[in-house]
């Protein structure tokens, strides 16, 4: 006999519906203003650096889809004890990455792209480990896409150039990250 669970079906429907709604305007309904501002700045950074509006939109859309799907999985208690431990490791690594990003922006001549690339790579790997049993290969590719995009050495060098065009965006991102840390969201 086939096992059917309406709870599992509802979760799958939520993930599917919410992933189709992953636009900036819909994202603002699900996230706070500060997170929305950080996402907007990340979009601007991507657009300015790549010169490709569609690519920048795709990266941010993928970021939103990932966040929504992981949120749905948490809400429905789909993670095992081992996966919850990985989630804690991911959260700590993300927090460490945010603190490092802020520090590199605030203290002149401290930026090290290799450190940022490694932090982002570690975050990517932990997130993939957390969701590999729960999300489709397409969703896993979205995670890789987002982290690989923002860990690009040229983008990071451009972003952290104090005389570069992306410096004001970085300043706004760091202000938002600081707020998230203070509020215990990161």
Automatic annotation (TrEMBL):
Listed InterPro entries: TNFAIP8-like (IPR008477), TNFAIP8_sf (IPR038355)
Entry annotated with the keyword Lyase: no
Record-level GO BP terms: innate immune response; regulation of apoptotic process
Keywords annotated in UniProt: Immunity, Innate immunity
Pfam families, A to Z: TNFAIP8 (PF05527)
Recorded GO CC terms: cytoplasm
PANTHER family noted in UniProt: TUMOR NECROSIS FACTOR ALPHA-INDUCED PROTEIN 8-LIKE PROTEIN 2, TUMOR NECROSIS FACTOR INDUCED PROTEIN
Family statement drawn from the similarity comment of this UniProt entry: Belongs to the TNFAIP8 family. TNFAIP8L2 subfamily.
Protein's UniProt name: Tumor necrosis factor, alpha-induced protein 8-like protein 2 A
Organism of this sequence: Carassius auratus (Goldfish)
Source lineage: Eukaryota, Metazoa, Chordata, Craniata, Vertebrata
Gene transcribed to yield this protein: LOC113062531
């Amino acid at each position: 006999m086939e096992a059917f669970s309406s709870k599992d079906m509802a979760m799958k429907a939520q993930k599917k519906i919410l992933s189709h709604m992953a636009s900036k305007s819909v994202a603002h309904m699900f996230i706070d203003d500060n997170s929305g501002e950080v996402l907007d700045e990340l979009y601007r950074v991507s657009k300015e650096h790549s010169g490709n509006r569609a690519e920048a939109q795709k990266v941010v859309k993928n970021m939103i889809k990932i966040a929504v799907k992981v949120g749905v999985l948490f809400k429905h208690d789909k993670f095992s004890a081992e996966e919850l431990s990985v989630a804690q490791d991911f959260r700590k690594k993300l927090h460490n990455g945010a603190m490092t990003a802020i520090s590199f922006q605030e203290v002149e001549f401290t930026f090290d792209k290799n450190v940022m690339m490694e932090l982002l790579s570690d975050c990517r790997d932990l997130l993939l480990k957390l969701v590999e049993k729960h999300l489709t290969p397409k969703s896993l590719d979205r995670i890789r896409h987002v982290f690989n995009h923002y860990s690009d050495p040229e983008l990071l060098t451009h972003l952290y150039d104090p005389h570069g065009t992306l410096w004001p965006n970085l300043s706004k991102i760091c202000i938002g990250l600081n707020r998230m840390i203070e509020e215990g969201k990161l």
